[in-house]
């Protein structure tokens, strides 16, 4: 299967990316890593083993686009708009559901520091304030 920079990702290619992305060690490395070129080079090599010819830049771009689209749909669902959907939402939800979110908190001296909290997306759990 030949894929170039301007080619759309096929469903099979996206499924292969999601299967590699769903691996625990990959998810761990992607979380909180700003300079992640090496991780995406590794992901591109893994995809080549699965018959998907994409370079690391294409993999990173697709990863970012899928993550953005997932968060857009997730926000819409949380706001009551269940009409917004995406093709791989449930797969991405399984991957991203428990991803820690970095939040900024104000410290006593006025600076902000990053803290990690666990997202709980269960609709039955009430948040205690």
TrEMBL record:
Pfam families: Myb_DNA-bind_4. InterPro entries: Myb_DNA-bind_4. Residues 107-129 are annotated as: Disordered. Residues 7-95 form the Myb/SANT-like DNA-binding domain. This is Zinc finger and SCAN domain-containing protein 20.
């Amino acid at each position: 299967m030949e894929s170039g920079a301007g080619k759309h990702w096929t469903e099979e290619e996206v499924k292969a990316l999601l299967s590699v992305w769903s691996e625990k060690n990959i998810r761990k490395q992607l979380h909180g890593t700003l300079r992640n070129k090496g991780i995406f080079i590794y992901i591109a090599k893994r995809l080549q083993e699965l018959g998907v010819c994409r370079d690391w830049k294409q993999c990173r771009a697709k990863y970012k686009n899928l993550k953005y689209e997932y968060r857009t749909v997730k926000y819409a669902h949380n706001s009551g708009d269940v009409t917004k959907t995406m093709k791989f939402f449930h797969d991405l939800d399984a991957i991203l559901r428990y991803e820690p979110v970095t939040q900024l908190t104000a410290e006593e001296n006025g600076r902000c520091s990053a803290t990690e909290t666990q997202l709980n997306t269960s609709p039955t759990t009430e948040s205690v304030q």
